[in-house]
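Complex record, two chains
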Amino acid sequence: MIADGVTTAALEVRNLSFSYGPKRALADVNFAVPSGFTALLGPNGAGKSTLFALLTRLFTSADGTITIAGHDLSRQPRHALAEMGVVFQQSTLDLDLTVQQNLLYFAALHGLSGRDAAQRAETALARLNMAERAGEKVRNLNGGHRRRTEIARALLHDPQVLLLDEPTVGLDAAARAAITQHVHDLAHDGMTVLWATHLSDEIQDDDHLLILHQGQLLRDGNVSKLRGKTPLSNYFLTLTGPKP
Amino acid sequence: MRWLPALFAIMRREALRFVHQRERFISALVRPLVWLLVFAAGFRAALGLSITPPYQTYITYEIYIVPGLCGMVMLFNGMQSSLSLVYDREMGSMRLLLTSPLPRWWLLTCKLTGSTVISILQVYAFLAIAAAFGITMPTVGYVAVLPALMLAGLMLGALGLALSSFIKQLENFAGVMNFVIFPMFFLSSALYPLWKMAESSRLLHNICAFNPFTHAVELIRFALYGQFNFAALAWVLIATAVFGALALWGYDPARGLIRKRA
């Protein structure tokens, strides 16, 4: 069921393996993320976070290659990182700074400053319906708005690829649905999105789906084609749940 | 890709963080002042100091320990900066820094510069209060000490960076206090001249002479009197290079220890 990789994909992973000492976390993973919304679905401990750490170069693996917007992450890390927006599972906002200050700090880490950075921050916040909160301290925002701030920030430098690692953790149902829809809208506008989750209800039928389990990629393809008439949650459970 | 915005942004963030933690500034000032006004007052009678360069006359113990206390401010600040990095890593906000498309050595340099500038401001605040209590240096010393403080700050900041990449958790920071800050401070020329140490133990004297902190303090001491100590400068530069290399190694995504905890 593993689909052939598309060489023009903005994000491509080839023969990627990784171990923590003797424990194998990823085993020969291959996939390509086309433009639009791709969900990386896997139960806890499937290797999603390890994969994200490798995709964002928090650590590197000698086995396999990761290509982002045509740049090999190990050979041209800076070019690759410049084309990537990341929302980590754990919040990376500075609580004592305002929304705007957080965005400008990030802009500076990407070499942007002055009017250009301010303009981009404004646009990114407007895109996530957060414009009126620019001056608020992050500490005073609720979980949903903090997440939106992080997504706005990840889009500030116009990346080609947006990576989100379980971005709805800790949010209430309404905020979760809103964030999920927002990112689907971004994907419909042409952004390449990789969204890691263990919750099948965050995935829509026309999304691209990767199912990761115990460090191995089990499925790669269109959601509706993969699941057929079975509800996605059942389909996912049959693949990854405890065997009877 | 422009590099300077990151430098200014990281420095600004360090400064904001410092302003937000008023207790940190106060404790950074109170600590050396307690040593200067209480400890030194008690010790001046016990310790007779003869004339050694850069001093040209007999000096009181208060005068002697001022450079050491400048070093102490910087040592604590360097460790504080290391602590904030470990905290950043535990909270996840360090990922933001590590996924920036700028070279990692540059990001670490920015961080180092930011914490050094904060240290220098604290040292000048300390020198001003010391002067208000009548413990003054030659005027030229206050200017000449600036480059010395920069180098000492970079060296201790680089040590802090290197340590932060090796400390597993925030809780282990007490260990750093016990095994790095205290030995570094007490086994140096900050509180007593090396020849005095040699009188009691040759071995301790040799350890003190090897300790890079001793040389940072001597660099500051000579600069405060408008003089230049070449040996101290060389030691400080070498130590900065070694600590800097260790920090780079520690933060290298392929080899460093960061991978287990990132």
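Note: The mean pLDDT of chain B is 86.
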